[in-house]
Amino acid sequence: MDCFDGSPGQFRNFKKDDFEADWIKVAECRFGQVYRAKLKLWREICALKCFDTTLNASNFYRRILEENSTIAKVKFKYIVSIYGLCHEASAMVMEYMSNGSLNNLLASHNLMWPKKFQMIHEASMGMNFLHSMKPPLLHFNLKTSNILLDDHLHVKISDFGLIHWEKGMNKKLLMEYLTARGNISYIPPETFTQCPDPPGTSFDVYSFGIVMWEILTQQKAYAGCSVTTVLLQVSQGKRPCMEIIPEKKPHECEPMINLMEQCWDQDNRNRPQFSEIVRQTEALSEILKIPGPMQCPKNNDEGQKSFALMISPIHKIKMPDLPSDDENGKEGFISLLKKK
Ligand code: ATP
Ligand code: MG
């Protein structure tokens, strides 16, 4: 470990040798890999997000170096902590989130309503923190794979600050970055239409609306549709289908759905700020609070654990009948989306 780094507000620079030798690959992505490794000095398991420097992922690594002092200051309960960098591996060294991403959890487990509400609220807490920084730290890459889960299935926002909007930057470039990462569903329409305004906080609010839908429905928005189809439909004001939200739902779902619709409003000026969103999600998750351990059923250990966590494994993953994106599938696509 470099002793001269790591002063408050600066990243430490770790050496490869600061970690025990057995790095375990957690995920392989288009732009690099994520490893789990133990830091010898702290005896702490960390995650290393390694950027493939031969691809345009190197832009993201460069960005962390440039924004070192801002990103290093971000410390909050609902944000994944970044411990430093490992230049030797072109990696960002961060808190290891033992339960992986929300994206994976939504596909593998049924979540009970109170848990869904709690996760929405915790994610809004994290985003509100980033936007309350001066100037606001815009995420631009908010999606369920960047919402990670700790040992107790509480959520934290990850991979913030890697994409930066600079004055004079071309929106086409931002679109290219994001579509290359498979983020098309989370991009607000004004990014790919003629709107001259630079993207601001309302960009992340839109992405959050899509995240809310994915949590409430446990489906992927616009699954099976091509990029072109999504761009076209979204620019015309269409959004993911509401009928997918189960009919048997608590009353509190209605205000949560209203909030989600405000977040993805076509006109970015009508979208609420996170300071307002977080107040609403707080009130709603408070009403639908997760029962304490005293109220858990006591039939067996597994049942008690599932109840306490408010999740249960999906044994047979049920996929909706998704339309293909050809001429014949167009009819089906429309029914997947709801016109506002
Ligand atoms: P992007 O690069 O746009 O953020 P992504 O989120 O799909 O795309 P990665 O950030 O490389 O790709 O993450 C891939 C997967 O690695 C995540 O979905 C998650 O399962 C795992 N992962 C990432 N960071 C951590 C972490 N800090 N702790 C544990 N697992 C992690
Ligand atoms: Mg990520």
What layout of secondary structure does this protein have?
Blueprint: E1 12-13, E2 24-29, E3 32-39, E4 44-51, H1 58-66, H2 68-73, E5 82-86, E6 91-95, H3 102-108, E7 109-111, H4 113-131, E8 147-149, E9 155-157, H5 171-180, H6 201-217, H7 227-235, E10 238-240, H8 253-263, H9 274-287, H10 301-309, E11 311-313, H11 330-336, E12 337-339
Parallel strand pairs: 1-5
Antiparallel strand pairs: 2-3, 3-4, 4-6, 5-6, 7-11, 8-9, 10-12
The protein binds adenosine-5'-triphosphate and magnesium ion.
Summary of the model, kept short:
With 340 residues, this protein is α+β, with helices and mostly antiparallel strands. It has eleven helices and twelve strands.
What are the main properties of this structure?
340 residues, alpha+beta, 6-stranded mixed sheet, two-stranded antiparallel sheet, 12 strands, globular, disordered C terminus, binds adenosine-5'-triphosphate, binds magnesium ion
Describe this structure in words.
The chain has 340 residues and is α+β, with helices and mostly antiparallel strands. It contains eleven helices and twelve strands. It has helices at residues 58-66, 68-73, 102-108, 113-131, 171-180, 201-217, 227-235, 253-263, 274-287, 301-309, 330-336; strands at 12-13, 24-29, 32-39, 44-51, 82-86, 91-95, 109-111, 147-149, 155-157, 238-240, 311-313, 337-339. The strands form four sheets. It has a six-stranded mixed β-sheet. Strands 7-11 form a two-stranded antiparallel ribbon. A two-stranded antiparallel ribbon has the order 8-9. A hairpin with a 5-residue loop joins strand 8 (147-149) and strand 9. Helix 4 runs antiparallel to helix 6, helix 4 packs antiparallel against helix 9 (274-287) and helix 6 packs antiparallel against helix 8 (253-263). The longest helix has 19 residues, at 113-131. It is globular, with a radius of gyration of 20 Å. Bound molecules: adenosine-5'-triphosphate and magnesium ion (MG). Magnesium ion is lined by residues 145-146, 158-159.
